[in-house]
Specification:
4 helices; alpha/beta; about 25% strand; Rossmann fold; single chain; 8-stranded mixed sheet
């Protein structure tokens, strides 16, 4: 598919997110955090979890991180065109990084080798039932996730971010699971 089609889909998804009222945004965020907490408690083998700092209208998972502080939460650090994950015990130690997004410090937070991550929670603009993910266009998650094909990859999305299909290209890495307000769906 053409880049224009991907661009159009991104714009449509951004518009849908912008249309969410603060009440809808807050309620969906609470439902998503509850569903994720419940799923993680029922799946205790996932200990090293790649997570993101919410930026803009992304789902904020800080409630889950706080309530399940015994897990090893690992945040992405963007350096040039590469992304690595680092263990962060206390989120207040994150610093402003790429695009102003809170990130770990390479000197303060230990690097976690990609193969040690049991689960990566992925933000995105849109997701499909086939596992397709449409990000913001930087390719950071696709490049990172391609290194760890057997790791669980979970897309995190509001109801308006779920589409029947997403424009994808061969380098786009599919999700294995989707976190929705109805719970976790294995794809």
């Amino acid at each position: 598919m053409s880049a224009t089609t991907k661009l159009q889909q991104r714009q449509e998804l951004k518009t849908a997110l912008d249309r969410l009222t603060e009440e809808e945004f807050t309620l969906s965020t609470q439902q998503l955090n509850y569903a994720l907490k419940s799923w993680l408690i029922l799946n205790p083998s996932y200990q090293h979890i790649g997570v993101y700092s919410a930026y803009g209208r992304e789902v904020d998972l800080s409630s889950t991180i706080k309530d399940l502080a015994y897990l090893k939460w690992c945040f992405p650090l963007v350096n040039d065109q590469h992304m690595t994950f680092h263990y962060v015990k206390k989120t207040h130690t994150l610093v402003s990084g790429y695009r102003g997004i809170p990130e770990p410090s390479a000197t303060l937070h230990p690097l976690i080798p990609a193969e040690q991550l049991d689960l990566v929670l992925c933000p995105g603009l849109g997701f499909s039932p086939q596992g397709e993910r449409l990000g913001k266009g930087g390719g950071f998650y696709d490049r990172y996730l391609s290194q760890i094909p057997s790791t669980i990859r979970m897309g995190i999305c509001f109801p308006d971010q779920q589409l029947s299909s997403i424009v994808s290209e061969p380098h786009d890495v599919k999700m294995t699971h989707l976190l929705t307000t109805n719970g976790v769906i294995e794809l």
